[in-house]
Design goal:
By secondary structure, the protein is of the alpha/beta class. The chain has 3 domains: about 130 residues, Response regulator (Rossmann fold, 3-Layer(aba) Sandwich), CATH 3.40.50; about 160 residues, P-loop containing nucleotide triphosphate hydrolases (Rossmann fold, 3-Layer(aba) Sandwich); about 70 residues, Helicase, Ruva Protein, domain 3, CATH 1.10.8. The two termini are about 40 Å apart.
Length: about 400
């Protein structure tokens, strides 16, 4: 039920508003002055606040200032019998949603309240969408283990240069985060970061995806299209799962690295590109070279700076930090109060064989958030993490 706080020093107004709003199916609490109202605001969560301006002990403008200082996002509608345009403007500037003059018009008051509540829902939805959009762009590397500390130090040294980096590690270990950190700490940070998952693109399309194509180059090429190298010009291109790239595409990538030039599929014109190349793979490229699946000359071009990302099983000391990091993100995304994992839960997480690495841990934390109570314990982890699975 929507919860509203009415702050007004006039008892008849408090009583009338409470009666009307409860008739409209709202839950209503009241306070007789600004100080009492602020105490309630700091202790409880409200969906909307109706606040008079002229009150003893603490006036409405002071209450509004305190709400802002404490980062409370509840919409506030100011009410006053001594209002004028200047007062209304000042209240709005301080963060009030709207201003209503006394004597209160019932219809206008209800419309204003419903608009304020609707606006709150829109604002929350926008924030939620922004979090979803930015979720994949979060680049903090969480961990304090020796292996992770070494990676962070390497990133600090290598990022400012244009050196190519080959990032190795298992699926879900965090190779993309390393690539994004390298880009964001480089001189190219304001230029594009373009990711290409080589394993997800069919071999017959990978060249068009990377280098673009001219109109009529193949049956479905109805118009000219730039490729990822052109899109990343001035910035960074991240070739993920490069071990799955076709032989012909490997040859073209090698040429692009050697000459800083590309040619679109079906075209003859050479296009200069200024791109830093980062690559990642979960395969052993030495073995792939011996098997004839990967070009040795391309390997040496890419492997200027090698960075290996350890599996989660090799950095289990980081599990408490990672678990609490994901816990905070997921609870916020789900609109839930922050949950916690007790010591038995952390111990149980450390006993899991993390074949899917960080990605698997995040999925398990999300499952535990949805299925468990406010405190996640060892038995919860044993039940839902499937350590033997």
């Amino acid at each position: 039920m929507t919860k509203i706080l009415v702050i007004d020093d006039e008892r008849p107004i408090r009583s009338t508003l409470k009666e009307i709003l409860e008739f409209e199916k709202f839950s209503v609490e009241t306070a007789e002055d600004g100080k009492a109202g602020l105490n309630l605001i700091l202790k409880n969560k409200y969906d909307l606040i109706l606040c008079d301006i002229k009150m003893p002990k603490m006036d409405g403008m002071e209450v509004l200032d305190k709400i802002t200082e404490n980062n409370i996002e509840t919409p506030v509608v100011m009410i006053s019998g001594h209002g004028n345009v200047e007062t209304a403007v000042e209240a709005i500037k301080k963060g009030a949603y709207d201003f209503i003059q006394k004597p209160l018009d019932l219809n206008r008051t209800l419309v204003t309240l419903r608009n304020a509540l609707d606006n709150k829902e829109v604002v929350q939805e926008v924030k939620k969408l922004k979090r979803k959009v930015s979720k994949g762009k979060v680049t903090d590397i969480i961990g304090e283990s020796q292996a992770v500390t070494a990676i962070k130090e390497m990133i600090e040294k290598v990022a400012p240069s244009d050196a190519r980096v080959l990032i190795t590690g298992g699926n879900g270990s965090g190779k993309e985060l390393v690539a994004r950190q390298l880009h964001e700490k480089s001189n190219r940070e304001k230029a594009p970061f373009v990711e290409v998952n080589c394993a997800a693109i069919p071999s017959e399309l990978i060249e068009s995806e990377l280098f673009g194509h001219e109109k009529g180059a193949f049956t479905s090429a109805h118009k000219q299209r730039p490729g990822k190298f052109e899109t990343a010009n001035g910035g960074t291109i991240f070739l993920d799962e490069i071990g799955d790239m076709s032989s012909s595409a490997q040859a073209k990538v090698l040429r692009a690295l050697q000459e800083n030039k590309i040619t679109r599929v079906g075209g003859e014109k050479e296009i200069k590109v200024n791109v830093r190349v980062l690559a990642a793979t979960n395969k052993n490229l030495r073995q792939e070279i011996e098997a004839g699946n990967f070009r040795e000359d391309l390997y040496h071009r890419l492997n200027v700076i090698p960075i290996h990302v350890p599996s989660l099983n090799d950095r289990k000391d980081d599990i408490p930090l990672l678990a609490n990091h994901f816990l905070a993100i997921i609870c916020e995304d789900q609109g839930l109060p922050l949950k916690e994992i007790d010591e038995s839960g952390i111990t149980a997480l450390k006993n899991v064989n993390w074949t899917g690495n960080i990605r698997e841990l995040r999925n398990i934390i999300e499952r535990l958030v949805i299925l468990c109570g406010d405190t996640i314990i060892g038995n919860d982890v044993n039940l839902y993490a499937n350590p033997k699975g």
